[in-house]
Amino acid sequence: MTHPPIVKVCCISSVAEAALAIEFGAKALGLVSAMPSGPGVIAESLIAEIAAFAPPDIATFLLTSLQRADAIAAQHAALRTSTVQLVDALTVEQLQRLRALLPDVQLVQVIHVADAQSLDQARAVSPHVDAILLDSGNPLLAVKELGGTGRTHDWALSRRIRDAISIPLFLAGGLHAGNVGEAIATVQPFGLDLCSGVRTNGSLDPAKLRAFMAAVAAAGPRADTSA
Question: Is the Cα dihedral 158, 159, 160, 161 positive or negative?
């Protein structure tokens, strides 16, 4: 069976934005905790409020820049999202520890696509998480970029990563209604993740949301991947 890619709207800043994203068909919400840079950071109390508001069939992603399993588990215990999105690199040992601490929580590891090393990174962590999310940050900068850049990356390399792993893959980085069809055709991701592409002056834009969802539908189904 094939399905359209699911859509995750990130940088949700209020219960009202969460409701709007869900109304237009988003199946996941991205809730950004403290980051070294980038948009969308909200108070942890608001993350908990939005996570509690979301219906059971809507995934709530806690975006965390923490790199130690104990700290991430404690953060999740307070916020109670369905998913933890790891925007920075963790060692395999920390991933294994986190899995033991959060056995019923979905773990999504972000890989910032730069070069062939990104493929190696995805292969190394994929046995320890539930999904990979490809983004266009740069964790090597003095002030790390861990997402929300609005930049695309090399989708041909993203496709190589998708073909090399056996878990679902989300594609992020500069997606909008004008390029998402090409992104789906090239990468065939399980899911799509976007922030700035459906916003105007920082606020979620119903017209851009509608156009994006229509473009996803028009692009047709993704290739079959396990969820």
Answer: positive
Token duo for residue 42: 């909200």
Number of CB atoms found within 10 A of residue 93's CB: 10
pTM of the model: 0.90
Based on DSSP, count helices (H) and strands (E) in the chain, helices before strands: 8, 10
Question: φ and ψ at 103, to 5 degrees?
Answer: -65, -25
33 secondary structure, DSSP code: -
Q: Max Cα separation, the chain? A: 45
Q: Measure the CA–CA gap between 208 and 117, rounded to whole angstroms.
A: 34
The contacts of residue 69 (CB under 8 Å, 6+ apart) are 90, 94, 95, 97, 98, 101
SS3 82: coil
Share of the chain above pLDDT 70, in %: 87
Among 113, 129, 104, 127, CA closest to 187: 113
Q: Which two tokens stand for residue 2?
A: 């094939």
Alpha carbons 149 and 193: distance in angstroms, whole number: 12
- C-alpha 55/C-alpha 73 separation (Å) is 22
6-9 and 28-32 beta bridge pairing: parallel
Of 94, 95, 92, the C-alpha closest to 108 is: 95
Q: What is the pLDDT of residues 51-100, one digit of tens each?
A: 999 999 999 999 999 999 999 999 999 999 999 999 988 999 999 999 99
